[in-house]
Write a structure and sequence with these properties.
Number of helices: 11
Distance between the termini: 20 Å
Oligomer: single chain
Largest sheet: none
Strand content: under 5%
Order of helices and strands: HHHHHHHHHHH
Radius of gyration: 21 Å
Shape: globular
Structural class: mainly alpha
Number of strands: 0
Amino acid sequence: MLLALLLNGTSRILNTARTLLLIPMVLPPIIVALIWKIIYTPDISPLHQLLDRAGYPLDSLIANPNTALWAIAVADIWQWFPFTLLMVLAALQMIPNDPQEAAKLDGAHRFNIFRFIILPHLKPVLAVCVLFRLIDSFKAFPLIYVLTDGGPGSITEVTNYYGFIQAFNFSYWGYGSAIAVVILVGVFILSWLIGRMGWNDDRTTH
């Protein structure tokens, strides 16, 4: 949201920046996983080489049980933050200018303009972004499969990956199917709760 506020404009530089920031989202998930596999592999990683030269050697983040899941989260955020950026930016450009100009004439501070005018218009969009990212978080399969394969140990065996292992590695088809159904029900309940928060109600924008 903060990045969308910074990029909300019509200059050529901002248009170029918006285009470049959308690149991670259009890349295939397997390509994103391979990019981060290179970044997290000390022997070939430009990041690790740079840190070594600076005197700050770093072990492999995906081989460390304390950082493996966080490393996958960083890769997932890098891939999908342009989606949230695009939705928030589109919502910002649809906000009418009249209420903001009236508030400026009345001497309102920028923070108050954001809090009482801009943010209420963004709340429904933010709720949709939370919902989509919640659903995507249950589908973070390619990153885990390529980066850690569920390891080290079973640290990154999230629910969907655990169900995949049970079904395809151990042939527990019923158990794997049950896990898939539980995930479906859980996503449905969480989606319903987000909708009940009231952010998708038109009254929140008045």
